[in-house]
Amino acid sequence: MRTGVLALVALLSAIPAFASDRWREVRDEQNAFSVAFPDPPATRIQRHDDLTIVRHLLSPKSDIETFVVESTRQDPHSPDFQEVVIASSRSPSADELREFRLLSLRVVYVDGIPVRETMSDLQSRGLRVRERIAVFPRLLVRQSWTGLAGGETAPDVERFFASFRFKLKQ
């Protein structure tokens, strides 16, 4: 009996080690960042005229939880890029305010670079959204997690945000 209990304790203590093996780092050399996902994400590239959006997306729990990193690279003088930057940094509209309830807004530093972090409730679906946005002269990067309220500080979510690194040329 004692041996069975010890074997069960050993097995249960090994589970986090197996779970951590599923993490995959995504290196986006063109857009100068790396980030780890709890499982391999799907990568999609969208092109609109001279605007390119690269999206790394993982949805391990169907529509309930998503991990996303989007990057948009463009000539900073292009009207399309300016609209993307303005849309990411402007105050929300009245319609968006009805849909989202802003819970927090702060600046965090990632590799010494200031990044805007927000936490919001998506009221129509009962979900929480945590995201970080960084804007550079030719690049916009958005890292976000969407899931059930309370999950925004779960270990996988914290590791996802903590893993993000800029690989900018000095």
How many angstroms does the end-to-end distance come to? 61 Å
Q: What amount of the residues lies in strands? A: 35-45%
The mean pLDDT is 76
Helix content bin: 25-40%
Q: Number of DSSP helices?
A: 4
Order of helices and strands: HEEEEEHHEEEEHE
Shape from CA axes?
A: globular
Tell me the layout of helices and strands.
Blueprint: H1 2-20, E1 24-28, E2 33-37, E3 42-48, E4 51-58, E5 66-73, H2 79-89, H3 94-99, E6 100-110, E7 113-122, E8 127-135, E9 139-148, H4 155-162, E10 165-166
Antiparallel strand pairs: 1-2, 2-10, 3-4, 4-5, 5-9, 6-7, 7-8, 8-9
Report on the architecture of this protein.
Helices cover 26% and strands 44% of the residues. It is globular, with a radius of gyration of 19 Å. By secondary structure, the protein is of the alpha+beta class. The strands form 2 sheets. Strands 3-4-5-9-8-7-6 form a 7-stranded antiparallel beta sheet, with helices on both faces. Strands 1-2-10 form a 3-stranded antiparallel beta sheet. It contains 4 helices and 10 strands, in the order αβββββααββββαβ. About 10% of the residues have low confidence.
What descriptive keywords fit this protein?
170 residues, alpha+beta, seven-stranded antiparallel beta sheet, three-stranded antiparallel beta sheet, 4 helices, 10 strands, 44% strand
Question: Could you provide a short overview of the structure?
Answer:
With 170 residues, this protein is an alpha+beta fold. The protein has helices at 2-20, 79-89, 94-99, 155-162; strands spanning 24-28, 33-37, 42-48, 51-58, 66-73, 100-110, 113-122, 127-135, 139-148, 165-166.
